[in-house]
Write a structure and sequence with these properties.
By secondary structure, this protein is an alpha+beta fold. It contains nine helices and 34 strands. Strand 27 and strand 28 form a beta hairpin. The longest helix is centred in the C-terminal third of the chain and has 27 residues. The termini are far apart.
């Protein structure tokens, strides 16, 4: 169906009307394509007895029909909150979103799930994803404003990424507030989201909910506490007598300062079991799958190819060891790069891609093999091993330049003379080299004759050497900077960051410095260097235990300050006192090995 828009003659179109018309035309053009549909709850965790908002959003759409929910288990009731639409033009790019919101009230504690279902968007049938939230038992709250720390369960595994929410409830409108303070002693803070605001109904009364969502990873086993937490804010409390004066007409009130506090929450952190632990286990916790590919599988020996390994799943990607190619004679493996694409806002789901250059020199090699890697699944409480399928390759020998056939003129022509066939049916080849040519008398006795005769051979040798050198330079990877130069520049940068109190820059530089120093000692790529390498590589190589503790302390500072801010210069200068002794210990270890 074609829609026509008529513009009356003589009417001037303002810039606002023109923009709206262009947006409308763009939206009509997009209606032939299926809209991208997402679904979500406003919170991951709620208490039994309160409501949760369920939202379905369609990108680049104009209409969402009323939702016909499938049969929902443990549903006490629901309310259609209607639709909202938003259109944005940013740098010439137009985006349109339409959302339909529902308020749902679960009837029992446990998982509350809205399964995938069909709905109609712009006349087309689409399918929503399955979404889930956790309904927790009822807690008693006597205040009108309260703060709480929420996790899905109380028991986790060392190294597991824990999603948590800091939730602020208020029966009053919130005028202003400061960011919450949350103690995370024994944890490394991971990703976090911008706080979101929603509404819920508790006991028939509306409440505002501010949700701060983040992740944390435990660094040791045993009973650890998340929290306590506190938050300062100002709320608008309605006047006692709103029938008089200003409050009567405008529904106002008085702003009051409030400090909301949440007690610490104790979590039980379990060590991965020793029974059945693989030798190659490096501390990764989660669920992962992997696939390997090569840029080419049919190439000439000496050519560089790129090997890509894609790891997908859910868990602690930061501690996931880089999958490795199996080393063997005839293969040169170069330090690679890695990148991560999150599948959710907290980075718990996603895809990590490792790429590295590989040169195969031996034509006898027919496949690229990979070392398996292991992880611990916290749900099944079992170790799992990922074994990548080998990549079949064909390595061709480099072409060898042969002598071309001689001239066809005169007696120097190369010829084969047929003779009687042998018993195996093959005829021997007789080569005629032509008549002997005599040099002119006295020519070979000239003193300059040897140099003249050797000139073509010497020119050919120089030419072939130049071609070979050029090929090697073309195939060779970029040379890494001199570690000594990198070390000096990084130390200078580290000192400047310490003097200025720039904690993020200080610890980022410290991490680079540790990678530059440890990688050549341990014989690993710099991007794979972390605190685990102290136990797995350096201590077995002979690093003294006190120096190992010094390095662990430096790595702990890097991990704890990933999201740090400005620190006092004295604090950073004091922390820098451990850097030089650690570097000296690493150099001595490298000399001994």
């Amino acid at each position: 169906m074609v829609k026509t828009i008529q513009i009356p003659s003589g009417r001037r179109i303002g810039t606002g009307s023109l923009a709206r018309m262009l947006i409308l035309l763009w939206c009509l053009a997009c209606r032939t394509h299926a809209a991208n549909v997402t679904a979500a709850f406003d919170r991951l965790f709620i208490e039994l007895g309160e409501t949760v908002q369920f939202t379905v959003t369609a990108d680049n759409a104009q209409r969402i029909d009323r939702i016909q929910f499938p049969e929902l288990a443990n549903l006490a009731g629901g309310q259609d909150l209607g639709t909202s639409q938003q259109t944005e033009v940013i740098n010439g790019a137009v985006s349109s979103h339409i959302s339909r919101r529902y308020r749902l009230q679960p009837a029992a504690a446990g998982d509350f799930t809205v399964p995938s279902f069909k709905l109609v968007v712009d006349g087309q049938e689409v399918t929503t994803p399955t979404v889930r939230c956790r309904v927790l038992p009822v807690e008693q709250h006597t205040n009108t404003v309260w703060l709480k720390i929420v996790t899905e369960r109380d028991t986790y595994t060392l190294g597991e990424t824990i999603p948590l929410e800091l939730q602020l409830y208020s029966a009053y409108n919130i005028d202003s507030g400061s960011p919450p303070n949350l103690s995370l002693d024994g944890f490394i803070k991971g990703h976090d989201e911008k706080p979101s605001q929603s509404q819920t109904v508790i006991g028939g009364k509306n409440h505002i909910v501010l949700t701060f969502r983040m992740t944390a990873t435990p660094t040791k086993g045993g009973d650890l506490q998340i929290g306590p937490a506190s938050m300062d804010l100002a709320v608008v409390v309605p006047s006692q007598n709103r029938a008089r004066g200003f409050d009567f007409f405008f529904g106002g009130g008085s702003a009051q300062k409030v400090t909301a506090e949440a007690p610490a929450k104790t979590l039980h952190i379990l060590q991965p079991p020793m029974e059945g632990r693989p030798v190659d286990y490096a501390g990764a916790v989660g669920r992962f799958t992997a696939k390997a590919t090569a840029s080419r599988t049919n190439f000439t020996a000496g050519d560089a190819i790129t090997v890509k390994i894609v790891v997908s799943g859910q868990g602690a990607f930061d501690t996931l060891p880089a999958p490795k190619l199996e080393e063997m004679p005839g293969i040169t493996i170069y330090t690679g790069t890695n990148s991560f694409v999150p599948g959710d806002s907290l980075g718990m789901i996603g895809t990590k891609t490792y790429e590295q250059a590989v040169i195969v020199e031996d034509p006898a090699i027919t496949e690229l093999k990979f070392e398996p890697f292991s992880f611990f699944d916290p749900q099944t409480r079992r170790y799992e091993k990922v074994s990548l399928r080998p990549i079949k390759i064909k390595v061709n020998r480099p072409a060898v330049a042969g002598n071309a056939a001689g001239s066809t003129n005169g007696s120097n022509t190369l010829a084969s003379e047929p003779t009687t066939a042998k018993g195996d049916g093959l005829r021997p080849l007789r080569v005629d080299y032509g008549d002997t040519v005599s040099l002119a008398a006295g020519l070979s006795d000239a003193p300059w004759f040897p140099a003249l005769a050797a000139a073509p051979l010497l020119a050919y040798a120089i030419l072939m050497y130049g071609l070979t050198l050029a090929k090697r330079q073309r195939l060779a990877p970029k040379t890494a900077p001199d570690p000594l130069l990198s070390r000096d520049s990084l130390l200078s940068k580290l000192a400047k960051a310490a003097d200025s109190g720039d904690a993020p820059n200080y610890y980022n530089t410290l991490n680079q410095l540790l990678q530059v120093e440890i990688a050549p000692v341990a014989g690993v790529p710099p991007n794979s260097v972390n605190s685990a390498i102290v136990e797995s590589k350096l201590i077995p190589m002979g690093l003294p235990s006190e120096e190992g503790n010094r390095l662990r302390k430096l790595f702990e500072g890097v991990d704890e300050a990933r999201f740090g801010g400005i620190a006092k210069p004295d604090t950073l200068r004091a922390a820098m006192a451990d850097v030089e002794p650690a570097l000296n210990a690493l150099r001595q270890l490298q000399w001994r090995n």
